């Protein structure tokens, strides 16, 4: 019985780890897809050129962070986007759509 329990324990832990990685990768994919949609609709936000450039830079950085599966970088950029969207209310819905990608 101890051997059977050890084998079951080893496989169940790997399954949980694999499931967590799958959920995380799915989250990154959702964010990247959302970023592409936001960038395609950039003119709808009616931003000044400097604001548009800053917003685009933040979104592109977030995309790169998702490509690298860099969790800390993703959260750092999301904090920046949160502050940015609080200052420019027109971009708040875009931020909220990205934030929804983290919900299960």
Annotation keywords:
single chain; 104 residues; mainly alpha; elongated; 80% helix; 4 helices
Set down the secondary structure blueprint.
Elements: H1 2-40, H2 49-67, H3 71-87, H4 92-99
Helix pairs in contact: 1-2, 1-4, 2-3, 3-4
- Average of per-residue pLDDT values: 83
Strand content: under 5%
Shape: elongated
Low-confidence regions = 14-19
Helix and strand sequence: HHHH
Helix content: over 70%
Q: How would you describe this protein?
A:
The chain is mainly alpha-helical and 104 residues long. Helices cover 80% and strands 0% of the residues. The protein contains four helices and no strands. The protein has helices at 2-40, 49-67, 71-87, 92-99. The radius of gyration is 18 Å and the shape is elongated.
Write a concise synopsis of the structure shown.
The chain is mainly alpha-helical and 104 residues long. It has helices at residues 2-40, 49-67, 71-87, 92-99.
